[in-house]
Please model this.
Amino acid sequence: MLYKDYIWRCRSKRPINHSDIFNMLNLYQPVIGPLAVSLYLTYFYHLPLNQAGISCFYNLSYLLKLMATTYDKLAKARNILEAVGLLTCYELIENEKYDFLLLPPLSPPKFFQSDVLCFSLCKVLGKERFFLLRKKLVDDYIVEPKGKDVTKSFQAVFGKLTPFDFKQDLVVFKECGLDLTKDVDKYEDGKYPYVDFKDLAWVKAKISNFVSEDVWTKDLEDKIRELAFLYKLTDEDILKALQNPNVTRDGTIDIENLRSFLKSQYSFSLQDVACKEEKKKEVIFNLSKEELKHIEQLENLSPLQLLSFYQSGSKVALTDIELVDSLSHNFKLPNEVINVLLEYVLLKYDYKLPRNLVEKIAAHWKRLGIKTAKEAFIQAKSQVLYTKKQKKRKNNLNKDVSLKLPKSMYEQQEALTMDEIAVTKNIEEDMKVKELKLRLQDKINKMQDILKKGTNLEEK
Model:
């Protein structure tokens, strides 16, 4: 714990460059906030310019005045920098003196390999903006060159080195005190967030029969810790995930398959949360005294007694008994909830109990987590209210059928009507012509008959 009046200094193992500041503003700032970024830059500008080094000692009061903030806000900002891997705090042997090691931000490819940082950034920016940023900083940036590699080697330019040259180099290194066996600083290119999670010794012991000792490395353990922290897993959850045959097979652990499996499980848990949220958002009713009394009666009856009551005391049908048994054993609903469900369906569907419908409603209520008669009654009442609103909306739509049509449709309809009138007139005219022809033909036939009769008389 840092004292309220401590003395501090900062240091770095390599200079912070412009690309680091760019990564800080684009990747880290949405996650850690502007005050933490301001604190990081304040530490940075107290370091030697353009080189690694160490600053002088300063009082905390100087830093508070410089940033125009309070102790609590400053402490929170510093803790955030430590949590995301941008700052490491060391307590010196002298009391109330601290060293702050300033670490560079992760490069974009490494940043997007961290599940914790990616999840935090996506939560702030949103999915669409997150993918656009990743495409801009990683996918479009890392482009493999095409063509044949014709780069000259060191030996081709400077010639070959002899064993004698190497011996001379070793003598020089020893005189300078250089240790060639020492590893390069592991935080040279940034540090991943530190996840302080429980020891995985129990999980390691349980999975040891399926995974060899050399596979369980510190790097693998850190990745499992990060995933466990991200998805809030217990030891049992981790073991269950590792026992998946797609994750652990042939004595190895596929970390990508583990990540995919946990993401799929996380999506299922989100669906359960959504159901609970739907339950929280339900309509709140002020139940009357009669309704409360009726709910109390339903709480004290068995489902078969309720059905017998609605059948005037007669024997309950075998199919209804099987339905009640299914609701109790398959859906694990309490008797009081079953009573409300049966009564709701009976009253709504003309005293019928369609099994498929009842079980469908039972599954819905189970997902909502309904456990008491009062909760079931409120849900049934809200469903009745929703149905009434739907019917009212449908009636309003039916009333609005006689809405005015667009002008173009009126013109089209008018054109069709005129065409129909024209066709009708043509048909009527044709009919009149045919009638006139028939009449003339009749007159001609009659005149011919008269002429024939006159001719016959003359001959006689």
Q: What stands out?
A: Residues 404-460 form one domain. The chain is about 65% helix and 5% strand. The two ends are 154 Å apart (CA to CA).
